[in-house]
Amino acid sequence: MRTLLLSLGMLVLLATQGANAANLTYADYAKLPEKSMMVVSPSGTKLAYRLTDSERDFLVVLDLSKGEMIRAVDIAAVNPDNVYFVEENRIVLVASDNTKLFGYRGRYDISVAFAFNLETGDLHQLLTAGKGIHEGQTQLGSVIGISPERKHVYMPAYDEKSNYSLFRVDLGKRKTPRRHKKGTKDTIDFFVDKNGELLARERFSNQRNLHRLEAWHNGEWVEIFREETEIRHVGFTGLTPDYKNIVMIRQDGDHGRWAYYTKSLKDGTEAGPFFSREDRDVESVIMDINRIVYGVTYSGFKPSYEFFDKKLNARIKGIQKALPGMALTLSDYTPDWSNIVLHISGAGNAGQFVRYQSGKLDSLGMTRPEIGVEHVNTIQEDTYKARDGLNIPTLLTLPNGKKAEKLPAIMLPHGGPESYDKITFDYLAQYFATQGYLVIQPQFRGSEGFGVDHLFAGRGEWGRKMQDDLTDAVAEYAKRGLVDPERVCIVGSSYGGYAALAGATFTPDVYKCAVSINGVSDVEQMMRDEKRNFGRNHWVVSYWDDVISNGSVEDDHLEKISPINSVDKVKIPVLLIHGEHDLVVPFDQSEEMFDELEDAGKQVTFVELEEGNHNLDKAENRAKALEAIDKFVKQHL
After folding, report:
1. Distance CA 585, CA 517 (A)
2. Per-residue model confidence as pLDDT tens digits over 277-328
3. CATH number of 377-636
């Protein structure tokens, strides 16, 4: 641990680089990370990452042993969401594109996978619609296993007869994939062993509301799990190292948390929970390309980890101890865990990749080199009680150099709503804290990550108790003397945008202005759109009905909680921002809200983002949005 701590000094030194940068611009805050998706080869001798700036978008591959660049390929047209090594000289890139499908209306997010050969520089798509692959599908980027010689991967896709089947795809040659195993129309996943032999398949029928897991025994399917349900409550995620059990995540009734269990492929016997904590949910499993599970990630403002291997547990805890105050996110690792790549942020750090090797930490580069330590404001964890006594975990971003007393504030509710904020570089929170605002991010009821009870407390509470939690935050921090209650603006994206509009309509005296980014204004219309897009019996419709209405028998429930129907109550200026290519919340949600507000004589501004998607993944759109919000907030606070 001594060498680990000695290396930390260099990390801190590197984190301060860029701190002398003066007068950071909107573009500096809105930039996508310069380095992202950093992964290490199986031997630990090669490193790959995405390098993005205003002029370049490359996949860069380095030889760590020689300190040399091996390859740099332009991936702007590919636009990957994920990158990983499948063997020493081959990388898979999973990408998505917002485009049109021939023969289908509208635009879709299409996911595909590419193989990149480091030796030849060849980059080609693995699965392509046509030639046995159904044309009208959006997900062609999933890899569920790799062959022992690492020359083929196993990828699920709908075949020409719309059965979700498993294909064996050659990594090196551009040729028609071979169907490895035929599926059914309601198959949603497959599991294979290290030799590619089929172990199990998961099925879910929207028409029958039936969730099943079937194991492959002696040439036939044997059902080992069955639940009649509109919405899946069990997640089958991976396999144990002996390939004898499926790993699943479900609710632990004793703790009211999501926990890790196993189910025997032989007879369906369930065991566990193996990873279960009273104060944390199991958020995801940590697994390799063959879906062998090594451990879990727990929820929380800062992620934490637990592994089957006690030595690995000690190693990760040692790294966390050496980097106090930092949020550590596992980025990649070698099969033997001798090399671990992590992303760190918080405690004055806007984001940095580090590598653990042989008891030492080495910096692999800053993700936002323009943002120096003086521009990273303190993020503080806090809790307050809502009016009914429910504890609401909260992140407060405090402006550096300002006395924490009667500060103007930005209420920044997250999207989802079943998600939660983490300690990381949030460009909106950090920008406004730099401008002298206290930024409040409550994890209101209905947020994930804080237990099942906290999550389900939000069911049916859109515009009601979920909104009260935000109102109570303003009151609480004003009572503590942190906030000037006369200078609070609510800003949010997606569900957070809905909350901003709900703040302007349902609690018009709490805020001085409201900003909705890609937000829902008409919940009734949202549900009509979901039914049209997915079908009345689809689980997505059932999910939203449960989350939003929770069995409400009021005929006008959706109408009442839709801000568009209460524009007459608006007393404050409203800024609407929406991406034209948003496929999650349609553009017309903001367009129609703008028309209603304008017709009612309210003070409203509408900023349209050309080619903007739901998450504003283009830096220029983020910069345009940030500038509009900044000028709007400063005008009205």
Report:
1. 10
2. 878 888 889 999 999 999 999 999 999 999 999 999 999 999 999 998 899 9
3. 3.40.50.1820
